[in-house]
Write a structure and sequence with these properties.
Low-confidence stretches: none
Strand order of the largest sheet: 2-1-3-4-5-6
Largest sheet: 6 strands, parallel
Number of helices: 14
Order of helices and strands: EHEHEHEHEHEHHEHEHEHEHEEHHH
Shape: globular
Length: about 375
């Protein structure tokens, strides 16, 4: 099946790494693994983060113009080259889809969405236009792939949904896990870490808002730990890097060692995960957290905040520990517990890797997606 793919928030080939872009690429990989022919329909970014009604109106007009241009291009294409289905990824009030419903209707093909959410409180506010555009798009949709369970209840119960847990290709992480000793030596040499200590790891972009809030809670929690037999490696960069570093001020390297890795190439991350002992991330208002899933695929236990779709990724008390959202004391206690109990975190890491490999891998998800799309496109 030929699939037109569109991500209004950020195209999958966007140069800035993010969990959103990663998930978009994984969806495309899943479709291609099932034999579908996927093309990127548009790179239009419809996101308005400021609540600027004029900007939203301009984006809506631009989207309509691009839809017409796309239809003219399809009109010149051979029939066997036309898309048979449109799939829009990550549809919400700040990044509505102004193309897909119009193009799908004109071509007479099913319009589908993945990771769509509705925020009724945005009606009549600064993002009212985006909110109404989302409702209109969902009204045209034949089905929705829901990655964050928190979104499921916001959608029309009559809309067919595939509740699909976030997934990835576990192979690179499984391979890295098998070379843990070698990777630990490499990471120790590169970042000056002590292999005799417990290594905590955080991998997250440094952006204002929820990411920065998570970093601040992480810093406060770590400062309260009673022991100093651990080190933390922080992998990430971004516009809020200065504020993040400020949050960690007071960490004396001889007492609470902290190492900064900045942003690393994606292909190096399995090595970093496999070398560590425990992944820690408060996950404030996190949709689900691809880094949490990657860490588990590499055999790491996780300590995270129980928020949003995180429980769909981390199995509390089995593959990690989840703590109440924003609770610094509980987060610190969970981290301290797993630092002190290497057997428990090792067992959790094994269960985490098994769970990802069994239920949240690319092949299993590809089959589920294809079955769902075929069902929804059948009259």
């Amino acid at each position: 099946m030929k699939v037109a793919f569109y991500a209004p928030m950020k195209p999958p080939d966007h140069p800035v790494p993010s969990g959103d872009r990663h998930m978009a690429r994984l969806l495309i990989s899943a479709l291609e693994r099932s034999g579908h022919d996927v093309t990127l329909a548009s790179r239009l970014v419809s996101r308005d983060g400021r609540g600027d009604a004029l900007r939203q109106a301009r984006l809506q007009r631009l989207g309509s113009e691009l839809a017409e241009r796309l239809l003219r291009r399809y009109a010149r294409a051979p029939r066997d080259q036309l898309p048979e289905l449109w799939l829009t990824y990550h549809l919400y009030y700040k990044a509505p889809d102004h193309l897909g419903p119009k193009v799908s209707k004109a071509l007479g093909i099913p319009y589908m969405v993945a990771e769509a959410s509705v925020a009724p409180k945005r009606a009549g506010g600064p993002w009212d236009l985006g909110h109404r555009a989302v409702l209109s798009a969902l009204g045209a949709a034949k089905g929705a792939i829901t990655l964050n369970p928190a979104d499921a209840g916001c959608l029309d119960p009559a809309l067919p949904q595939l509740l699909l847990p976030p997934f990835l290709d576990p192979q690179p992480y499984e391979a890295a896990r098998g070379m843990r000793s070698a990777h630990r030596k490499t990471v120790a040499e590169r970042f000056g870490m002590n292999p005799e200590k417990t290594w905590l790891l955080t991998v997250a972009m440094m952006r204002p808002g929820d990411k920065l809030a998570s970093y601040r809670l992480l810093a406060e929690a770590l400062k309260t730990l009673a022991t100093t037999d651990w080190e933390i490696l922080v992998v990430g960069d971004g516009a809020a890097s200065g504020e993040v570093r400020e949050a960690f001020q007071g960490f004396a390297n001889d007492q609470m060692p902290l190492r900064w890795a900045r942003a690393l190439p994606g292909e190096m991350l399995p090595t970093i995960y496999a070398a560590a002992d425990l992944f820690v991330w408060p996950a404030i208002r996190e949709a689900y957290g691809m880094a949490l899933l990657e860490a588990q695929a590499a055999g790491l236990a996780v300590v995270a905040g129980r928020e949003g779709g995180v429980p769909a990724v981390v199995d509390d008390q089995s593959s990690g520990l989840l703590t109440p959202p924003g609770d610094c004391r509980a987060f610190a206690a969970a981290v301290s517990r797993l630092i002190a109990d290497p057997d428990l975190r090792g067992e959790m890491g094994r269960k985490a890797a098994e769970r990802v490999s069994r239920t949240q891998n690319l092949d299993v998800s590809a089959r589920k997606i294809t079955t769902f799309l075929e069902r929804c496109r059948t009259p």
